[in-house]
Write a structure and sequence with these properties.
Strand content: under 5%
Structural class: mainly alpha
Largest sheet: none
CATH superfamily of the largest domain: Lyase 2-enoyl-coa Hydratase, Chain  A, domain 2
Oligomer: single chain
Number of strands: 0
Order of helices and strands: HHHHHHH
Distance between the termini: 40 Å
CATH class of the largest domain: Mainly Alpha
């Protein structure tokens, strides 16, 4: 952005300092330097780094189980974590309880419990 006279947008000024720290985020914003993959990993910007030739295999092995998992619970977990990041503990716990109530009424929860009792893999539907 800085190379064309703009500032970071789309929430970068909010997310990036929280992810990698204020000093690193500011340096990245003003220098517009590219960050090598290993450095991004070390700074916590990415979860893993793999060689290019292993990328698609790694993505498939990671995304497949996620796609067939309890996606409603995944989404609610993301909402809970995002809210917890910006609030105090009592409010975070209250929000978590509301979301847990939603998850607890879902088909996926019922299926997960039934599959556990029957010692089989759950077949989640995302609802």
């Amino acid at each position: 952005f800085s190379r064309v006279g703009l500032i970071p947008d789309s929430g970068t000024n909010w997310f990036l300092p929280r992810l990698i720290g204020q000093a690193r985020a500011y340096e990245m914003a003003i220098t517009a330097d590219k960050i090598p993959a290993q450095q991004a990993y070390e700074w916590g910007m990415v979860n893993r780094v793999v060689p290019a030739e292993q990328l698609m295999e790694t993505v498939a092995s990671w995304a497949g189980p996620l796609a067939s998992g309890p996606t409603l619970a995944y989404g609610l977990t993301k909402r809970a974590m995002n809210k917890a990041w910006e609030t105090n503990l009592p409010e975070a716990l209250a929000y978590e309880a509301c979301l847990q109530e939603i998850a607890g009424r879902s088909h996926d929860f019922n299926e997960g419990v039934q599959a556990f009792l029957e010692k089989r893999s759950a077949e989640f539907r995302g609802n």
